[in-house]
Design brief:
13 strands, alpha+beta, about 20% strand, 7-stranded antiparallel β-sheet
Length: about 300
């Protein structure tokens, strides 16, 4: 799984007509970033700018929990000290989901991969591939069984660290959508690197999201209405300049994802689940993907190619 801030290269664009019905508010779209990924919020409402500002405050609050670049974030405090007293509810909820996906994917989704990811990043920054001894040492500092958590605290085995970049963007999309639903909003598309759709387009019909694997746009858009979509591209970001060493790592072997998938996209009721599954599926064959999906009856493989 990835320790990177995430998939900047993916041009996943939500195409929505700006033509609104008579007397309806015009379509409004904010564009920016969330956890380092391109982000947008699209809606039609007379108070759209004010609504979006509230959503951006929520994104900022959640980034202070999940960021690997903010040394004061809850996640970085856990990684630095090896423990965190009274973790935020959002961190516990996300870790609980990670536990379920870890089990359903046979351990291929594992946020404790961060020390292994750092080993690859540091070696390739010096123009070297990590040797077997370095990888073996890094793997001793990974493993889901080295993490314990409940509402009183979270603890890591010494030397371990977490990355939630394989799930946090989807989680933030969910939480922003929850906030907007709670305000009575309908027909909103939230994109924080992964997508969560509240209803469909204001003028009618589902939100069409076009997938781009970095080489070609796919002819058929994924249609979203009251559902979420997440995508992972194993070789969209690589450690080496030749593009061969994927940023998605197999926690069971320590090896990069193979090259047989360019893009994996998953739909599910929650973007966090789709995000985690799409990450793990980069390491799987089709039959094991289908086996993992049976644990989540409402999740679907939208694209694998």
């Amino acid at each position: 799984m990835t320790g990177f801030t995430r998939r900047r290269f993916l041009a996943i664009a939500a195409a929505a007509s700006a033509a609104a019905p008579a007397r309806a508010a015009p379509l409004y779209q904010w564009r920016g970033t969330a956890l380092g990924a391109d982000a947008s919020i699209t809606l039609a409402h007379d108070q759209a700018e004010s609504i979006v500002q509230g959503a951006l405050s929520e994104i900022t609050r959640l980034e202070r929990i999940f960021s690997l670049h903010d040394h004061q974030s809850a996640l970085m405090q856990l990684n630095s000290a090896g423990y965190l007293d009274n973790p935020p509810f959002e961190l516990l909820e996300c870790l609980t989901l990670c536990r379920s996906v870890h089990a359903a994917t046979g351990g291929l989704f594992d946020p404790t991969i961060q020390p292994l990811w750092v080993t690859y990043a540091e070696h390739h920054a010096q123009g070297q591939h990590p040797d077997a001894a370095s990888l073996a040492e890094a793997r001793t500092r990974t493993g889901w069984d080295g993490l314990t958590f409940d509402n009183t605290g979270a603890t890591l085995r010494p030397g371990m660290a977490l990355s939630l970049n394989g799930v946090a963007q989807g989680y933030i999309a969910d939480r922003v959508a929850d906030l907007l639903r709670g305000q009575g909003l309908e027909n909103v598309l939230v994109n924080t690197g992964e997508f969560q759709a509240i209803g469909g387009q204001p003028q009618g019909g589902a939100w069409p999201v076009t997938l781009d694997d970095g080489q070609a746009l796919h002819r058929n858009a994924v249609m979203l209405e009251n559902t979420a979509l997440a995508s992972s591209a194993p070789h969209g970001i690589t450690f080496d300049q030749s593009g061969r060493v994927s940023h998605i790592l197999n926690p069971l072997t320590g090896l990069p994802a193979p090259a047989h998938w360019r893009l994996i996209s998953v739909t599910a009721p929650r973007a966090a689940l789709a995000d985690a599954l799409s990450t793990a599926f980069c390491l799987m064959e089709r039959d094991t993907i289908e086996a993992s999906l049976r644990h989540f009856p409402r999740a679907r493989l939208a694209h694998a190619g």
